[in-house]
Amino acid sequence: MVTIAEVARHAGVAASTVSYVLSGKRSISSDTRARVQRSVQALGYRPNASARALASQRANVLALVVPLRTGMHVPVMMQFATSVVTTARRFDHDVLLLTADEGPEGLERVAQSSLVDALVVMDVELHDERVPVLRELPMPSVLIGYPADADGLTCIDLDFVAAGAQCVDHLADLGHHSIALLGTPSAVYERQTGFAQRTLTGFVDAAGRRGVLGVETPCEHTFDAVLHTVEQLLRDHPGITGLVVQNEPIIGPLLDVLRRLGRRVPEDMSLVAICADDVAESQVPRLSSVTIPAEQIGLQAVESLITKLEGGSVPALTLLPPGLTARASSSQPTGHIGSP
Amino acid sequence: MVTIAEVARHAGVAASTVSYVLSGKRSISSDTRARVQRSVQALGYRPNASARALASQRANVLALVVPLRTGMHVPVMMQFATSVVTTARRFDHDVLLLTADEGPEGLERVAQSSLVDALVVMDVELHDERVPVLRELPMPSVLIGYPADADGLTCIDLDFVAAGAQCVDHLADLGHHSIALLGTPSAVYERQTGFAQRTLTGFVDAAGRRGVLGVETPCEHTFDAVLHTVEQLLRDHPGITGLVVQNEPIIGPLLDVLRRLGRRVPEDMSLVAICADDVAESQVPRLSSVTIPAEQIGLQAVESLITKLEGGSVPALTLLPPGLTARASSSQPTGHIGSP
DNA sequence: CTGAAAGCGCTAACAG
DNA sequence: CTGTTAGCGCTTTCAG
User: Fold this and answer.
1) Which band of pLDDT confidence, cut at 50, 70 and 90, is reported for residue A237?
2) pLDDT per residue over B274-306, tens digit each?
3) Is position A328 within any domain?
């Protein structure tokens, strides 16, 4: 590998001059700059990352901690990771991939060894044991999610409360009076991954505000669970005409179950999903949905980190507003058209 | 951050002794070893990654290049990535995440700057422009997939030819005489991502060998495409009683389409899918399937890289044998029971 | 505007 | 078995 010294010799300048040409941290006569750049090209010089990191105290690497088992939809996670990598590259950083199973110790490891100079942690739970660790780490971090005690930390997330409310409002606006939230598996609520609970809060509050009946039930990922849950729901609340679904894997089975039960969508049952756009669009009928803006969250997360690394300050909490796209799966409830 | 010099002073030894205690690269009296270890603990010492990399010429980081847009099922990809990270950690390495859109230049960048000391490249196409680059790189790499010219490279993949054949054999063993392969979208074949073509090869060869009719058709990911494709297939070949599916996203729609067309599974139509186990098991009925051993491929990839890094040699091509699990979606063709 | 020189924190000969 | 020393390749004062 060619070193900075070789480039310097080739260009007839000092190594520091080469460094400064590359970093632009002091002004260089256009003459020597050109000469150095030609030498860099000619020799195919690439600065050694470790040497640079050691001397500058900056690895130019961000850690990305992804969940392993989670209620989170995998493609959304991947979209998110992709967005983090892409954005990091725009700021000349690379991304080190960590899995959540390394736990708090893993964060300490990469941070304290200066392998990375900032961290993005996904799928943060309400009482996440990594939160206190992050607070003590000698470098900035951004959490995707929203722990109970977020003091001194930077969090970014979709505004799930607003998302839940938006679904209710959409259905209420259409004239529905009885609706249900088909939620994530109960394990997700128990783990207190904030997002499921916050959606529920938004759903319940909005239902109250709009004066509609809003019932709620968790749902596991198997076909049988969906069938059983929906049957039970319709037995207990026969008047339900609208469903909000926050559980991507059951969307297919749910449509199937409704078909089996003889409920047409949207004539007999309106549906609004909280899911990725491509999932909503690939169903029959295409689903009205609130998108999880994975790409935007990733972008925001990295931009916040870079700002912090440069000494800037960022808001402690960024809640991205949800956007509801009405598609074919929601309409006025049949037989109630025109009712108040 | 505490340095090796501080640990050395605290323990009353030389810095090199601390280094040797940590690396175990030479024998240390149990007395000083204990003393050093106590100091390491007491001070909470973590070796600086850049300094270590610079001095030892080893970053202890592997690059993982993941595809962005691909015919590959995302959860499988994620499984794979997870396996790579987990295995890398077992060998005391970390993983740098790169996306395919950085192209060959991205590989050169991380390799020539010594950011990583080996690479895993996923979703390698038949005529992948990264292949010649990898060949020239001054460090080992492993490809997941199987390019046309794999000379001098190490490749690992599922044996898709065998997978295609195994599906045919399974159905032929059950007594089916006319079967079809529902493949990936035609774009995937055109991109010549080897796996789709190799499955097709195995399917066609085995059908010939077993003397059964084997027809083949690509299929896009939309519901309408599935409906259209299956209708066309059954119109052209009404005798078909068995389907091999290599296209994870259409599995749900396909089951739905068959139901609509009044074909029961497996009574009227047997199904074998090439997909992840959890997908096969979450369908109704549970699908007979050939698994993509993502976890094992990831493990194998990292182990090969580590072996190469240590100067060992590994086979140029490792094709992991497919494993078929018979579940509820395949049976003898009704009305043909007992026929030869 | 440029060069010389002092580290960054660690590893690995080399010497004893 | 342990210590001394010379780098690894770069950045960044300090001097001019």
Assistant:
1) very high
2) 988 878 887 888 999 998 888 999 999 999 999
3) no
Contact present, A49 and B113 (Cβ < 8 Å): yes
**Residue B331 in domain:** no
Do residues A157 and A320 make contact, with C-beta atoms less than 8 angstroms apart?
Answer: yes
Residues A67, A38: one domain? Answer: no
Q: Which amino acid is at B109?
A: R
- When CB atoms are compared, the residue of A44, A96, A114 closest to B95 is A96
Q: Is B235 on the interface with A (CB under 8 A)?
A: no
Inter-chain touch B94–A96, beta carbons under 8 Å: yes
CB A104 within 8 A of CB A118: no
Per residue in A203-214, is it b (16+ CB within 10 Å) or e — as a string? bbebbeebebeb
In a domain, B186, yes or no: yes
- Note whether A190 and A264 are same-domain residues: yes
As a whole number of angstroms, the distance between CA A144 and CA A134 comes to 13
% pLDDT > 90, chain A: 75
Q: How many domains does chain A have?
A: 3
Query: What is the pTM (predicted TM-score) of this model?
Result: 0.89
Decide if B283 and A223 are in contact by the 8 Å CB cutoff. yes
A283 and A191 in a common domain: yes
C1' nearest to CA of A19: which nucleotide?
Answer: D11
Establish, for the pair of chains A and B, how many residue pairs have beta carbons separated by less than 8 Å: 118
Residues from chain B that touch A282, judged by Cβ atoms under 8 A, are 221-223, 249
Examine residue B207 and state whether it is found in any structural domain, yes or no. yes
> B335 pLDDT band (50/70/90 cuts)?
low
Residues A115, A238: one domain? no
**Interchain contact A60–B (C-beta under 8 A):** no
Enclosing domain of residue B243: 160-292
